[in-house]
UniProtKB/TrEMBL annotation, chain A:
Organism taxonomic ancestry: Bacteria, Bacillati, Actinomycetota, Actinomycetes, Kitasatosporales
Residues that span the membrane, as ranges: 63-81, 130-154, 166-183, 242-260, 296-317
GO cellular component labels: plasma membrane
CDD domains: TM_PBP2 (cd06261)
Region (Disordered): 29-48
Membrane topology designation: Multi-pass membrane protein
Protein's name in the database: Peptide ABC transporter permease
UniProt keyword list: Cell membrane, Membrane, Transmembrane, Transmembrane helix, Transport
Domain of life: Bacteria
Cell location: Cell membrane
TrEMBL record, chain B:
UniProt source species: Streptomyces malaysiense
A biological process term (GO) from this entry: peptide transport
Alphabetized GO MF terms: peptide transmembrane transporter activity
Lineage top rank: taxon: Bacteria
Domain Solute-binding protein family residue range list: 78-461
Protein name as catalogued: Peptide ABC transporter substrate-binding protein
PROSITE patterns to which the protein is assigned, alphabetical: PROKAR_LIPOPROTEIN
Coiled-coil blocks: none
Annotated Gene Ontology cellular component terms: ATP-binding cassette (ABC) transporter complex; periplasmic space
Pfam families membership: SBP_bac_5 (PF00496)
Amino acid sequence: MPEQPYEPEGAIAGTGMGGAMDLGASEATTLERGPGAPSGGGPAGRPRSLGSDAWRDLRRNPVFLLSALVILFLVFISLWPSAIAPGSPLSCDLAKSQDGPGPGAPFGYDGQGCNVYTRTVYGARTSVTVGVLATLGVGVLGSVLGGLAGYFGGWPDALLSRTTDIFFAIPVVLGGLVLLSVVTSNTVWPVIGFMVLLGWPQISRIARGSVIGARQHDYVQAARALGASDSRILLRHIAPNAVAPVIVVATIALGTYISLEATLSYLGVGLKPPSVSWGIDISAASPYVRNAPHALLWPSGALAVTVLAFIMLGDAVRDALDPKLR
Amino acid sequence: MRGPTRAGRAACAIGAALMMAGCGGGGGFGGAGVLTSSWGDPQNPLEPADTNEVQGGKVLDMIFRGLKKYDPRTGRAVNMLAERISTPDSRTFTVTVKDGWRFSNGEPVTARSFVDAWNYGASLRNNQRNAYFFGYIDGYDKVHPGSGRQSADTLSGLRVTGPRTFTVRLDQKFAGFPDTLGYAAYAPLPRAFFTDHAGWLRKPIGNGPYQIASYSKGSAMTLKKWNGYPGPDPARNEGVTLLVYTDSNTAYTDVLAGNLDLVDDVPATQLKNVRTDLDGRYINTPAGILQTLAFPYYDPKWNTEGARKVRTGLSMAIDRAQITETIFRRTRTPATDWTSPVLGTAGGFQAGLCGHACDYDPAGARRLIREGGGIPGGRLKITYNADTGSHKQWVDAVCNSINNALGNDKACVGNPVGTFADFRNQIGQHRMSGPFRAGWQMDYPLIQNFLQPLYYTDASSNDGKWSNKRFDRLVDQANAETDRAASVRLFQEAEKVVRDNMAAIPLWYQNGSAGYTARLSHVALNPFSVPVYNEIKVG
């Protein structure tokens, strides 16, 4: 494990020093093992990488702290909604239809007499699940396809680029209405699948550009000259240096996937009851807006805050990871 | 007639939020003495025998008059073009048409106008949706065979015997036949319909108090008063402009804003405010509409003795009183039989015929469903169309009521289908796996119309394919009975068979509701929940 000393930072290292260390590590194993001296880090003994720089910036960024707090809270209530919300989100008493706040129901009741507070809390789970899984799916598929195309070039690259053009031409909401209206499943998977299907070209384009940029660097040429295999170059040298833009775009996209889920559920093609989703609740409450605006405003507010938190987080991460933009 | 609200409103439903302005029409249509009214685009061309939905029927009601007309207040069939209809045996009828009636192009209405129209409507070649209305007439099986080619062009049971007389021979006794003749499918047609069919479709010619002045599909139809109308019920306004709305909420807010004079379907979610919004210019009158939950008997799971108990249990798990009060603000009345109060007790309506099976009784419901082996398939999925009416609200409420009664949050769930047309297609293809919304708006005010088309073996609107020999026998006997009271009693016996098997769960009787602006007076809805346009005064 020759690269061991540098790996924690190298994993998200940017350019310059990190790359140089990689090159050195892969070749000069014996040399480094010998004296045990710090081989290029700062005088403090612990090398500073872009990753640690970014983390230091983030800790001092109030936007990041605020959004991270909101997101931690959302993750908590997604995992344990019953910790703060009483009862079941599906138990509704029509006699309480459109009532205002009452004991155990600080947000009041909707048109069906369901507890708006309980439903809003339980709705977070759907949103967070869909957002996180869709982002993971999009990130993995997009960066693998984009990375391979960018690295190998040639006709697979041309094919992929034209394919992404085609996907970019599909309007998201229209595509959702057409594709998801034929699905009868009650789970989150069709929605996630649809988002991955339409979301990967964006990431793939970013990853492709980023890999093409990294491929030109000297350390990659050197590794190739030394006989490293394609998979080794891609995984060890290019991926760590090309992943930052993908992380930034994916984090911002997470917020938009959450709002897309709500949009599709609002239109009746996303999640379907008995799933609990903010989009479903907003749709159900909108005809009652004159008499029971609370049933509309609370889930809408929760959705807005959640989307905002993820987008703010994405912004903060971008500022930290991409110093060139500052 | 299937369902009180129709596919016409579906076109913009999905994009409703984005397109409200585009679908809403707008002001500027009503001139002096002309009123504007909300409308849905008709599903089919406006041929009388091809229109089986409410929106097209609205127009046919204004431009045609038939042998009978249903009194706008009582619903009783009274003679209109018929001078008399006589029969010695309830099977052969002799019809005499009144003198002096004309179509709006000047052509006199004769016996032939009716016979030609009925032959056209019955013929398989013309593929008319209401062809089955002629199914009682002798020779129908020749002109409209269930399979294969037709072996005759005209019904052998229809004979013109004079300029103003013709005879109708039925294939069985049917004492109530004359009372069905007010339905639009039986309207007379002018020669122009047959000689210049395309031209007639562009601008239909009828014999009613209104004439069609213009029609642009998907947007508006203008009708103007026919000044030469010879009938006793001429229009008391100068005309009606029907504006297409895809969302009754938009139509309602347009009435509030003064862009529209009359909305004939007040959305359930606005009912809480309607009295103050419109300052009393709101009517809420009983209509011949019954909402039920039908079941797919082609699915063996639902066709067992246990499932019968489950259905009865489900009926007892629905808190009809609470739902009609909260969701519908008393524009629906909990149903206690399978007909409608507009029939009157003499006509066959019998409050309480359903008995305990329609009372809310959670404990009884739990017991019956347990005895019946639980809900077939484990979970109840109520299928409905999401684009019209206020179906989502009540289906969710029915499911919550069932869930609460059974103590299981996930026992029942609504299954929305995007559009009415798709919903009807899925039903037609027998793709239902559980109960589905079934609304029945009567075609004519006879108890027969509430039972035979829905529950008789292989009847036209028996969507669930329910079949019961005893029910069929009782209906045959009731149709053959010449004494009206005895016939009604036999139909009620048949209705009890429906009850004992809970063939469909009756939910509530639906009222017609309408709101209008201060420009209008004398606004009323007939028992079919359609505004009586010719009586409305403007200004």
